[in-house]
User: Fold these one by one.
Assistant:
Number 1:
Amino acid sequence: MNDNVINVENLVKYFDGRCVLDGINLKVPQGCIYGLLGRNGIGKTTLIRILLGLESPTRGHTSLLGIDSTNLPVEVRGRIGCVAEGHNLIQNYKVSRLIKLCKDLCVQWNNEFFEHLIETFRLPLDRRVKELSIGMRAQLNLALAMATEPELLILDDPTLGLDTVARRQFLELAIELIQQQKRTILFCSHILSDVERIADRIGILAAGKLVVDCRLEELKKRIKKLQVIFPNAAPENIYITEIINQQIRDREIVLTVANWNRQKQAILDTFKPSSCTEIPMSLEDIFIECTKPAQDVIQTAV
Amino acid sequence: MLNMLTLIKREIYDNIAYFVAAIILSMILIICIISAAYRSNSEEAPIFAIALSLPVIVILIIGFTSIGVSQMYIDKNKRISAFLLTLPVTRGRILTARIITGILAILTLFLPLIITTMILYRLLSPPVPVFEGMFFDIYTVTLLTALTSYCIGLQTGWMKGKVIPPLVGFIITFVFASIIIIKGLGPQAWLPLIIFIIASVIRSRRKFMKTSF
């Protein structure tokens, strides 16, 4: 039996002859919080839109909860919660009316939890959606998505526009949600500290490809940034594979390498460096290194 | 089923102005029919019916094209379907609810008119079978015209731009109105209208199912 809640196989998407997604393969198992990262316009939202059946793929196959996402039936849609980028709520509706519409359409609705969220976010029910601030719209969208108690929650930049307090509240709610059994979250964000805090698996999209797809701690272990100082001028080529980035300056090389291991260490040692120091990397550092142009070296990562 | 009713309710609420307009127009027409029926003698009744039906058809063409255009245009611009599709709703259901709402708007106008005409006919008209057939023809062709206009509206509302879609819609609709005038109000006008309605619904569905939201 397939335990993957999200399954993407060889997904290709072209927009006006421009390749946005180039052979993406992605599997998100049940109970996973998957943080999908990438620079603006790299195709994160397109991937989510294809998953939700809002956009059709040029090639490839995507499925949610085991069902082809181009043809999701109502029952399956009822098990999916979604916060879309830009919070596409019906703008001319009053908040109360929008809530009623969602309540009536949803397969299940946890009113107690929803009331708790509305109270926490202090959302005015008598105002029109277009009169709400971006932050309030984000909160409303989030509350609507969470009230359905979804098996799969897809969040496309959900904290966009939220202030620090609201963002923290959101993260705590997300953690609360994931602690409930069998919940899976696909989480897209530019705020890497948020992703680092809640995600247990990371995917990084760059140049249309998923250049990183592994567990967060594994990612941190596998990508090393080294400052190597040589007694004389630094060699121009050190023959190590899977170099993400390197900067050569006189006797010094700053090297970012994927899948660092003993063999690579042995190759480096043949150049007899006078020192080799590891520079600690945060998720943000890894993200910046991985999204520099023409990088596809960590594709093999698990 | 409940899901579908909620979607229809939503569509009705969003297009409530058209329903109100349909009720008002229906009331005005009922008053016209009743007063004309009581004032004119039975020989003038068919002539009056034809005279009344032509301007009414023009109003209907504009009104029902507008409903279709407005439903699709508002959806496209306010990204209503994009939001609805994040809920347990399918594209097919959204479109079906929309079309049912359009048909309900048409019936809101016509049902009271048909009932009134039938009652008046039973009360006032002499038992001449030709009149009965004529009323049936008039109402059938008017209903089909309303439905055709609505279908044209659905298609043009989904087109890009603010000016061209309604213009294209109205031009096509007036072409159909001309066909009706040439062919008359009888069964010979039904066939092109029915074919056009079926083709329009199929095309709207195909477009709606494939569109990126």
Number 2:
Amino acid sequence: MLRFIINRLLQGLLVLFALYTITFFLAKAMPGEPFTTEKNISEEAKAYQRAIYGLDKSLFEQYLRYPINILTKGSFALSTSKGRPVEDIIAQSFPNSLILGLSALGIAICIGVPLGVISAIRKNSWVDWGAMSIAMIGICVPAFTVGPLLQIYIASHLPGLKVAGWGSPADIILPALTLGLTTAAYLARLTRGGMLEILSQDFIRTAKAKGVPSNKLITKHALRGGLLPAIAFIGPSFAALISGSFIVETIFQVPGMGQHFVNAVIARDEFLLLGVALFFGFLIVIMNLAADILTGIMDPRVRLGSNQK
Amino acid sequence: MTLGQSGFKIYLMRLLLIFLATLAALVMSSCDNNQTAVDKATDEGILIMGNTSEPKGLDPHIVSGVLENNVIRALFEGLVVEHPSKDGVALPGMAEKWYPKNPDKPDEWIFELRKDAQWSDGTPITAEDFIFSFRRILTPALASDYSFMLYYIRDAEPYHKSQRTYLLCRNIAPFKDNWEILKEVDLGPNGESELDFNKKGIDHLNTKELIELKNNPSLFDWPNNISDEIRTVIINKNLEFAKSGKSLWELINFGASAEDPHTLKVKLNSPIPFLPEITKHYTWFPVPRHALEKYGKEKVWERIPEWTYPENIITNGAFILSSWKFNEHIEVKRNPKYWDAGNVGINGIRYLPISNLYTEDRMYFDGQMHLTYSLAPELIKYSRERYPNEVRNELYLGTYFIRTNVTRKPFTDPRVRIAFSKAMNQEALIENVLKGGQKPAGGLVPPFGEYKANDSVGFDPEGARKLLAEAGFPGGEGLPDIEFLTTDKETAKAMAEALQAMWKQNLGANVKIKQMEWTSYITTMFEKNYDLAAGGWIGDYLDPLTFLDMWMKDGGNNRTGWHSPEFEALLKKAADTGNPEARYRILEEAESLFLSERPILPLYWYTRNYLIHQDLKGWNPLILDNHPYKFLKLERNQNNRSEK
């Protein structure tokens, strides 16, 4: 197991470096530069600004300098668009995204998994069709439609809920719901599929024949295997949820991380872009690893497989 | 399949109940007595206002945006402050009194600073603070975007541009009164040159490089009209100075000086009757040297983001920074050390960085803020019907126009430019597309004060066709395909399509729309790689010059390729005129001349649409939109309570 983890971590490091290289050169390929403004700045002032951010160095030097500064000084450079260190921006916005992402995931699991299980149990009944239709709508309707609808029809009428803003715990509900609904829909479909496969297997029939109570049959026997596809999906989608969403953050005025991905590109802020891209990459690597480990624990077949190697 | 649904159902119900209970608890926890955030804030005397986005910083010497300006004006105060309801009127700020030494030739101003002024940590504010601040923003390595706002001060420009040779040689023969002979020498950087020394420019060579150059003058590409003697003088002067190790600051005869700790004298390059208006701009605000020096004596000339963080910042305005949560809010609270603290009407301001205007408007309707930054055009009608007293539409000091590239056919011909201008139905565009109550532009400079706005621009399809025919394109025949550059916003597209149709219908011109993402659009415009380009300009201070001087030959914001010696002569004449009225007449003449050539096609004058809560008193229309916060008041208005 330890070897497996170390192996995967090394692979992750390689992935991160590839991600850095691609992002760096893509950022450099963008037309214009961070100091392009509508009101003209003199060439000299621009030259000094480039010097302040080290953008006057050769491309190769810049390419090496960024990772070296991260490793030696823990510095992700100064954001050109926000005038403060990138690590500071991530440190201030990630906790908000984390809370929002966890809540969204909670909502997604609470809605998606039971819906999927019920659909599987009552396969091809109206319950199944109803649930799966809702799930399909959930996948198709984008957040920028759901968000304003929730604001207008729920938040404006319910005292205690604000249409947007961040500060009190209740402010998490609507953005988390908006963010979680799509994931819930995917989870419902994946859980249904997984459950159906398991429920048709021999060991379930045996257990049923032995007289295992039906609720125990599902929670103890079927769910464990039936959830595997859902868990494989939760890993990376969890990383996506906690790294924020530009749309949800903009609609609900959440000071999260998602907006930086978009704004950094618009502002040609390559340091912020590299910072958030690497951070997101790091989360993906860790979450994939966690999902693999979890699958191993839940599914003896995977565990055995890795031991034999 | 009927697998024990009942047992599982109970399990699910339990899960659902827990989930709902958590939600209910969360909602209840934040719900007290049905009071909205605005009601609570009014009672506490806190103004909540939208401010579009997270500022780039709060250092007045580094930022350049409107939203930064909104926060900085609460924290810092300049020599004079805005009047709460009258444009172009200055009230005492850090200065108690101000006047030009000679009213007929206002090129030297005296500011008598108040003796009770102090920083928020109790340190007194003196004239030296201002001189330090002027020097800091002019320091080349600080690379401020807005240093040019101080170029009116004598020697500010050559210092900021590091014009060493000019400063060393301007008063000696053979250059005195004959500076033109050095026009072609690369004193500053010349990126296009092959030679390293030309690339750097003589002004930027260090001692070692100058010695090298002295020994071998051919290392630099000298223009033919420069004799050997002149070369020697220039190199020797520069070398001598470089060896001395002095800073350029010691070389200049800087216009601002402290007569005594409370008298600031400002000597200008030319008479400027509106100088107090310029000092309202944050580039003229003082910053605390002692707060910057905590990071090192020499660091004060560099960028230090940390000094503006809430725990470190020291300010001199009506408010001090109390909380700054990235992308969440910025809060300022009353500054007890402010000289006029007794007359400050509110206890604090909370700025919300809401970038989406629909979100902002929804938050306003939800009772979360007193003041929005803007009102979405689609919501203006709805808001007028439901909240007639809370919608404002005010003229703003900005003009929207379309640049023509006068170096490309067919816009080399002013008749074609004017034809395109006359073919635009401004009113129809505003009424049907923009819907923001903008004013059709009659000229370049928006109407304000004593300046008479131009009215030569307007919709005249007949005249447009006639002019186009005169230029050799009757009915649009023979016109090449024209490309109209604009941004990638939805509104920009709608507007471009409307104009495209107008030009087609009224002139028979085929215009193609090219939308580009913001930075690419700016870059393309700078490179003059367009035929027509959408654009606009917001005035920096209340004077027509802020709209006119950008069209000079080498103006970085010109980007049309147009220039005119007569136009520049008029601006020069205005610059030498001390009498404000006579000066305005000359500038009006310059504007007329400019419009008769029409390198840009003015479309509309900006207006600002926003929502304002009835609890907020003292927020009057101001064309620059720089509202002095200290005169505001918050009082409960019982007739107009927003309830859920």
